[in-house]
Design a protein that fits this description.
The complex is a heterodimer of chains A (52) and B (271). With 52 residues, chain A is an all-alpha fold. Helices cover 71% and strands 0% of the residues of chain A. An 8-stranded mixed barrel of chain B has the order 3-4-5-6-9-10-8-7. A two-stranded antiparallel sheet of chain B has the order 1-2. The longest helix of chain B is centred in the first third of the chain and has 48 residues, at 37-84. Chain B is built from 3 helices and 10 strands. The interface between A and B is medium-sized, with 19 and 41 residues.
Chain lengths: 52, 271
């Protein structure tokens, strides 16, 4: 899977590496900005309140 | 060149395996690693593991730093804004020993999710500030704003119990350091009217159902309410919902906004 991705990237190794880093940065941003905040609403977080 | 080496090595392996009589005929055709179901499955599982670790790193560390900074900044701004247009201070009252004190202004309880105060706790950091809003629901106040006021408890400065809740982990964790409070530490609520200084007295660990900590006199059924308490609740142990940690404080003084910040905000902390 990842080997196929590596082969699919164009250019010499250094260009592949740069494209890969940009891809990783984009994925991380999407995770931190959108995916994780949404996941956080689905999982239970310890309650801070005394039940009334 | 690498391929050549590998081919030579695999040929040798095949010869050895052939001499042992367990050669697999399928290997002969394999010149470079193919995409296999097991291979893809393995990579997916590794990816899932990395994602979960990333989420933990984000939730328990990175996001808390970002959110706490954000909430701190917003609360600070609010605190500064209130200083610009102070309401007229009430007349001070002279006590028996000749010092002048101010009767606390008691505000109407804030509505659910309405921000009415900023909490300053020097033990949590000299620039610590957290918004305080009405209500203690997670989606309404605790997750997006910071601290929440139990709506059925008394207002700040009022005889009885001014009870607040806040996260100890995640969502900016405004009460993360609650267990580090020392006797006598200042817990100062600022509103538009002024600063209500409370002094930390003691910690208590209770079950989540221990509603008596919210009584006008905490853990007491007495109806003879003259003292003014503050109660902070958070989860305990950290990352668990098994118990609650409760911090109690008693009221010390009220300082109107027009008079200026109380000394309790900047005094030296005892170790």
């Amino acid at each position: 899977m990842y080997a196929a991705l590596w082969r699919a990237l164009p250019g010499p190794v250094i260009v592949k590496l740069i494209i890969l880093l940009v891809l990783i940065a984009a994925v991380l941003y999407a995770l931190f900005a959108f995916v994780f905040p949404w996941v956080q609403t689905l999982i239970p977080v310890p309650d801070a309140t005394i039940d009334e | 060149m690498v391929h050549g080496d590998t081919d030579a090595a695999s040929r040798r392996t095949r010869r050895r395996e052939a001499s042992r009589g367990d050669a697999s005929p399928r290997r002969r055709r394999k010149t470079r690693p193919r995409v296999t179901v097991v291979g893809v499955l393995g990579e997916l599982l590794i990816t899932a593991g990395v994602l979960i670790l990333l989420f933990l790193f984000w939730q328990l560390w990175l996001n808390d730093i970002i959110v706490r900074n954000e909430q701190n900044g917003i609360a600070h701004e609010r605190s500064q804004e209130w200083l610009l247009n102070p309401p007229t201070a009430p007349d001070p009252v002279e006590t028996d020993d000749g010092t002048e004190v101010y009767e606390p202004i008691i505000r109407e309880p804030a509505a659910d999710t309405e921000i009415f105060g900023v909490m300053h706790i020097p033990r949590f950091g000299s620039d610590y500030a957290a918004d305080v809003a009405g209500g203690v629901t997670r989606p309404g106040t605790l997750d997006p704003i910071g601290l929440g006021h139990y709506l059925n408890t008394q207002s700040a400065g009022e005889p009885g119990n001014f009870a607040l809740a806040g996260h100890r982990t995640t969502y900016g964790k405004p009460l993360n350091q609650i267990a580090e409070l020392r006797v006598g530490d200042a817990i100062v609520l600022q509103t538009e009217d002024g600063w209500y200084t409370y002094r930390f007295r003691t910690l208590e660990y209770v079950t989540p159902q221990a509603v008596d900590v919210l009584n006008p006199i905490p853990q007491s059924d007495s109806a003879d309410v003259t003292d003014r308490f503050i109660t902070l609740t958070a989860c305990s142990p950290m990352f668990s919902a098994a118990e609650r940690i409760v911090a109690y404080g008693t009221f010390e003084s009220f300082t109107p906004t027009a008079v200026g910040p109380p000394a309790s905000l900047t005094e030296n902390l005892e170790d």
